[in-house]
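Researcher: Here's a chain I'd like modeled. Treat it as a single chain, no partners, no ligands.
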Amino acid sequence: MARRKKIYEGKAKILYEGPEPGTIVQYFKDDATAFNAEKRDVIEGKGVLNNRLSEFFMTGLNQIGVPTHFVKRLNMREQLVKACEIIPLEIIVRNYAAGSLSKRLGIEEGVQLPRPLVEYCYKDDDLGDPLVAEEHIAAFGWASQQDMDDIVSLALRVNDFMSGVMLAVGIRLVDFKIEIGRIYDGDFMRLVVADEISPDSCRLWDIETGEKLDKDVFRRDLGNLTDAYTEVARRLGVMPKTSTPITKPTLIN
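Model: Modeled as a single isolated chain. Structure tokens:
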């Protein structure tokens, strides 16, 4: 069988042409990166877990009326998504101080913020994904004011959903980042949650112990990343409590 045409390869995923026009196949790799790819490793099973977890979150968002590009999971490492034009921004929602926010403002990690804080970073690895304001976004035409209003609304709805889901299984949603895409249907355009939602893009702390269950385990050398992601998957019922992740790569045809 002929190999599919690769569209793009990033740090954590490979995108292939989909089986139908307007679709893309996302393949989740085992690669782990941190500090703008200065730290790298291959974590066996990570791609499988992120695929399953992103499916879980995207499906849940679709069910409550938050539009996403997710269509369906194809196998243990691939999912079918709608093709969309990605807005060149990372949208970060913070519920507690952590990471770069703590460093920038000198706020102790774990301090609850008075309200969810929405931040934007310009997606450019060469620049280190710098923090930008809405004025930058408008000035450079990355998104309109209406887009920004809609993006904030989507981000806060994602936050409400994710916070509730995590709280129910004893996990604190500290912060997360999402990407937003534009999908066109003739003259009509709508914004959707795109890319992925997984422990790669969230900070997740055990409510009782404060144990980190996200990529900070890799960033800070706190233990086994696969074990942390597996714990999240098991609590959410994505994987049976006695199961072991399938870690052998799926062949791409």
